[in-house]
Amino acid sequence: MSAPWAAIGVPIDSVGRAGGTEHAPEAVRGRDLLVRVGAEDRGDLDVRIRGDERDPATGVVGIADTLAMTKAVRSAVADAVAGGVRPLVLGGCCALVPGALAGLRDATGALGVAYVDGHVDVYDGTTSPTGEGADMPMSVAFGLGPGAWVQAAGGASAAPADVVVLGARDPEEAQDIADLRAGALADVEVLGPAELRTTGLAAAGARAAQRLARDGGRFWVHLDVDVLDEQAMPATDYLMPDGLQWDELAALLRPLGASPGLAGLSLGCLNPEKDPGGAYTEMTCALLASALARD
Fold first, then answer.
1. Could you count the other beta carbons within 10 Å of the beta carbon of residue 228?
2. CA 64/CA 190 separation, integer angstroms
3. Three-state SS for 93?
4. Is the pLDDT of residue 65 over 70?
5. I want to staple 105 with a disulfide (CB 3.0 to 4.6 A). Which of 100, 157, 231, 274 is the partner?
6. What is the mean pLDDT of residues 34-42?
7. pLDDT of residue 215
8. Would you say 97 and 134 are in contact if contact means Cβ atoms under 8 Å apart?
9. Residue 18 φ/ψ region, left for φ over 0, alpha for ψ in the -120 to 50 degree band, beta for the rest
């Protein structure tokens, strides 16, 4: 039987203001997600990201709060894993990812990552168009920068060959990171919606799970809801066409959620302010409940 889940809320929005994705942990709790997956509730971390100016040294908006948040998430995840439970990290935006992966690395050593996202998220403080931490979590996880953020995470937490990005489709990002993908990150497997459909969503998820859990390995799943098509999921901040449909995402996640190698999962970029009736929050909770169904 797999280890039980423990929910950790990370109410942040790397835009640097109150609101938006900060409200997601509260919103999913209100839909009884934790009850559905049988998760212990460890509450929200006392973290926020504030400020709208890019730090001149790192290029990151709200860098002091981002570093403090990363350390807090890292510690909470490491403690949960060491205590024999699987962290269910409820964001918030994707800036939580470096801390989550660092915590798992601290507790278990080498790890894999299934990054289910509309973006690859490997900008840094110089190349990011916005300076928001949500642009660059996997750059930090790979140890590429920004340097102060990598240091807060205790160094790199994932190797490119152990990361599969599922659903990325931003053409502007793809152009911006082309040289990086051809160089330092050449071993990162990136499968867009078209490739996933060619393989079959369930088959692609099963293949990723098998690869990341090979030889008894442990892996983390990060789900950014902008992997969904903008018509299917308007309650997020980075709307893009040509994404997955809900049934496709469910098929992709199911084998990842069922894998004995799954060590933790994080949710990012659900914006309840764009979901006044709660319908899309409910659909997100139902999706996760199905993927993480109790044994």
1. 27
2. 31
3. coil
4. yes
5. 157
6. 96
7. 87
8. no
9. beta
Cis peptide bond N-terminal to 146, omega within 30: yes
Report the C-alpha gap between 153 and 202 in whole angstroms: 33
Q: Which residues of 47-74 are buried (b: 16+ CB within 10 A; e: fewer)?
A: bbbebeebbeebbbbbbebbbbbbbbbb
Please tell me the number of Cα atoms within 13 Å of 115 on its side-chain side: 34
- The C-alpha atoms of residue 189 and residue 210 are separated, in whole angstroms, by 14
Do 267 and 28 touch, CB atoms closer than 8 A? yes
Task: Measure the CA dihedral 128/78/142/233, to 10°.
Answer: -50
- Which residues touch 184 (CB under 8 Å, ≥6 apart)? 142, 144, 160
- Sheet of 86-91: strands edge to edge? 40-44, 5-10, 86-91, 262-268, 219-224, 112-116, 163-166, 189-191
- Summarize the chain as % helix, strand, coil (round to 5): 45, 15, 40
- Alpha helix positions (H), 167-293: 171-176, 178-182, 193-199, 201-212, 246-258, 279-291
Other CB atoms within 10 Å distance of the CB of residue 247: 11
Query: What is the spatial distance between Cα 220 and Cα 80, in angstroms, rounded to a whole number?
Result: 14
Measured between alpha carbons, how far is 45 from 100 in angstroms, rounded to an integer?
13
pTM, whole model, 2 decimals?
0.97
Within 8 A by CB and 6+ apart from 182, the residues are none
**Could you report the per-residue pLDDT of 171-187, keeping only the tens digit for each?**
999 999 999 999 999 99
Bond prior to 92 in cis (omega within 30° of 0): yes
User: What three-state secondary structure class fits 78?
Assistant: helix
What 8-state DSSP symbol labels residue 2?
P
